[in-house]
Amino acid sequence: MFNILTYGESILSEKAHEVTEFDHSLEQLIQGMHEVMRRNNGIGLAASQVGIPRRLFIVGIGDEPLRVFINPHIIARSQETTEFEEGCLSFPGLYFNVVRPLAVDIEAVDMHGKPLRISADGLLARVIQHEYDHLDGILFIDRVSPVKRKRALAHYGRMLKM
Fold first, then answer.
1. How far apart are CA 71 and CA 19, in angstroms?
2. Annotated catalytic, 18?
3. CB count in 10 Å sphere of residue 80
4. Looking at the domain assignment, is residue 94 inside a domain?
5. Domain of 76?
6. Residue 56 falls within a domain, yes or no?
7. pLDDT digits over 111-153, tens only?
8. Among 51, 56, 93, 155, which is most exposed with the fewest C-beta within 10 angstroms?
């Protein structure tokens, strides 16, 4: 059973390593990540958020089938951006607006090592970018101005003390 790491854990700021083994343990990792994501009402989760520094994330929006992205590369981002409120399972209870490209193209492999390419926009594109950032040790608070970041972290610290 996995637990979600929260802000302050060093692994959240580290760049993840490529997945090289496509075996039963990878399937178990994905299943465990899916369970913990659903248990916490999330729509995306990176392996580093459960303490596994591998280039892997999952996305599960609503009733759509679970999407698995292993060793992903965002190969294109739209020029058009949009601002939308984001949260993060590693920052429970903290939400604020983040500007991101409206659409992305991503290449990755699935849990069996089969290549995939997806063009995404809207919420799916936003979640992909958010989770992809985790693989490079970038947190969503790193995507806002220094003033907003300072306020957000102060607010988060006060929430933890409650």
1. 6
2. no
3. 9
4. yes
5. 10-161
6. yes
7. 999 999 999 999 999 999 999 999 999 999 999 889 988 888 8
8. 93
**pTM higher than the cut 0.85:** yes
Q: Which of 21, 35, 80, 131 is catalytic?
A: 131
132 is a domain residue: yes
> CA separation (Å) from 7 to 18, 23, 120?
23, 30, 28
- Catalogue the long-range contacts made by 107-110 (C-beta closer than 8 Å, 24 or more residues apart): 107/72, 107/73, 107/75, 108/69, 108/70, 108/71, 108/72, 108/73, 109/70, 109/71, 110/68, 110/70
CATH number at residue 141: 3.90.45.10
* Residue whose pair of structure tokens reads 């990755």 in the numeric block: 108
Burial of 144 (C-beta count, 10 Å sphere; 0-12/13-18/19+): middle
Among residues 49, 50, 67, 71, which one has the least CA distance to residue 58? 67
Nearest 5°: the CA angle 117, 122, 126 is: 75
- In a domain, residue 1? The reply is no
The separation between CA 76 and the C-alpha centre of its own chain, rounded to angstroms, equals 18
Domain count, the chain: 1
CB contact set of 104 (below 8 Å; sequence gap of 6+): 74, 76, 77, 78, 119, 120, 121, 125, 128, 129
